[in-house]
Amino acid sequence: MASKILVVDDDPKWLRVASLYLHARDYQVETALSGDDALRKVSESLPDVVIADIGMPGMDGYDLCSRLRRDPKTRTLPFIFLTARDQDQDRIKARKIGSDDYLTKPCPLERLTQSVETVLDRIETARSMPLDRIGLSGRIEDVDLLDLIQTLEMEQRTGALVLSHGERTGTLYFKDGGIVQADIQSPKREEPLFVLLGWKTGRFLFLPDAALEQTPVTASMANLLFQDLRTLEEHERASLKNGTGGQGATGSGPAQSNQPAQAGDDPARPVQTRLEEIARKLRSRQPPTAGSPIVQIRILVAGVARSGAGELIQHLLQDLSRSRWVAVGIEETWDQYKTEVGRVRISRDAVLHLIAIRTEKRFWPVWEQCLPSALGVLLLVDPASRAALDHARAFLKARSTLAPALPIQAILPLHASPLELPGLRSSDLSVGSLDDPAARLNVLDHLILQWLGAN
Fold first, then answer.
1. pLDDT digits (tens, 9 = 90+) for 115-132
2. Cys-Cys with 61: which of 54, 230, 308, 454 at CB 3.0–4.6 Å?
3. For 253, what's the count of Cα atoms within 13 Å in the CB-facing half-sphere?
4. What kind and span of H or E run contains 177?
């Protein structure tokens, strides 16, 4: 089906020329002579792209763009300015209030078509973006943005941290851990970085490897990504309420058998049962609230760079998704799931978060943030690497300061020699291959039993 374009300009001759040209290129074209007329037509039939002049009687192009960005129904609508104004201050203002492109008259019609095709491609890219392209996502109120930025810096990440706060969106572009560009799209004119750091509520997501030159995150694209995330979360919640996500288990905890699942059993079932018990315990400690917030169970998967922490998260998600759990991104094949944060629904109102963190000593600020709120740690240790072993010992010493009661299960590779690690007993060490599902689930089960035994 042909894309529909709404062209807004107070010059009837220009509207006629643009309409004929775009129509000849298989677009459906609607026209409006003013901002008010454009709003009415958008409400009657939503276009795929809006092209608008700035200087028009009554509502000008700036006001039109701002109005569309404020309305949740049109927040993701691509918007292109086509105007005779060629001043930098106009370009900056247009960008800040959320335009996707800015063209000046006289504009070659081929350039106009190129702009339309580009913004449509970006929106299609956002719509079809697989979940594994979104590395981290969540609510701004649940994190400290400075800590999040510092984590991306220390991990030397490249990509785009996209933020949403009410009608405003903003993007911080990182290259090898450094911020190279701060961009804000808002109906208000604001200075980007300091405003973004001041946002205390809203949503965030990180797009690995997104570069400003190749994938500029415009307001419409950012809003669409957040809209898709919310839709996915609502779909999950509805599926769980309809019984897709499994019911809570009755009678579970440390008194149950901690033997590995027998052949023929669901190997993930013992782990699931005990996690459901943890969720009930955590829920009972929360003050009653009207919103019945989701219980978040955080387990850290810790190791040095290239230790296999991300792969272990992928494997565990694959193991657990074979049971009757619902996971964010279940529409994607797990082989393609490359994010270092995995989320699995374990019941109607509880989510297991598996979070990869680094054990190199320079990541102490990350440990300060993550360890106190975690349920436990799966620690990957390679005794053959002296550096990795030193980092693991430093991590364990930090745990004794930051979260001394935090359960830890250390995982050593096959055929590793026995060793002593500070604060760990022999029962806290497991030897096995990360490729063995039974070994992975057994280690996770031991960690959960540690927590249940202490709580």
1. 898 888 777 766 655 444
2. 54
3. 9
4. none
Q: Which residues, other chains included, contact 248 with Cβ-Cβ below 8 Å and sequence gap of 6+?
A: 276, 279, 280, 347, 348
What residues does each domain of the chain span?
4-128, 131-234, 247-454
Q: Are strands 159-165 and 79-83 parallel, antiparallel or unpaired?
A: unpaired
- How far is 80 from 102, CA to CA, in rounded Å? 6
Q: Encode pLDDT of 436-450 as tens digits.
A: 888 999 999 999 999
Q: Does residue 14 have a pLDDT over 80?
A: yes
CB atoms inside a 10 Å sphere around CB 146: 10
User: Is there a common fold for 4-128 and 247-454?
Assistant: yes
Give the Cα separation of 323 and 69 in Å (integer). 42
Dist CA 44 CA 318 (whole Å): 45
4-128: CATH architecture: 3-Layer(aba) Sandwich (3.40)
In angstroms, the Cα distances linking 221 to 3, 75, 293 are: 17, 9, 29
The rounded distance, in Å, linking the Cα atoms of 336 and 353 is 18
Note the maximum CA span of the chain.
83
Nearest partner of 83 among 59, 123, 112, judged by Cα: 112
| Opening angle at CA 103, ends 97 and 105, nearest 5 | 130
**Would you state the structure tokens that stand for residue 425, as one six-digit string?**
């007993």
| pTM attached to this predicted model | 0.45
What pLDDT sits at residue 324?
Answer: 39
Distance of alpha carbon 219 from alpha carbon 93, whole angstroms? 13
Q: Which residues contact 332 (CB under 8 A, 6 or more apart)?
A: 130, 131, 132
Cβ neighbours for 220, distance < 8 A, ≥ 6 positions apart = 75, 76, 77, 78, 79, 98, 100, 119, 122, 123
Give the DSSP letter string of 330-384. TTS-GGG---SEEEEEEETTEEEEEEEEE-SGGGHHHHHHHGGG-SEEEEE--TT
Q: How far apart are the first and last CA of the chain?
A: 59
Q: Give every strand in the sheet of 49-52, ordered side by side.
A: 28-32, 4-8, 49-52, 79-83, 101-104
Q: What are phi and psi of 85, to 5 degrees?
A: -75, 130
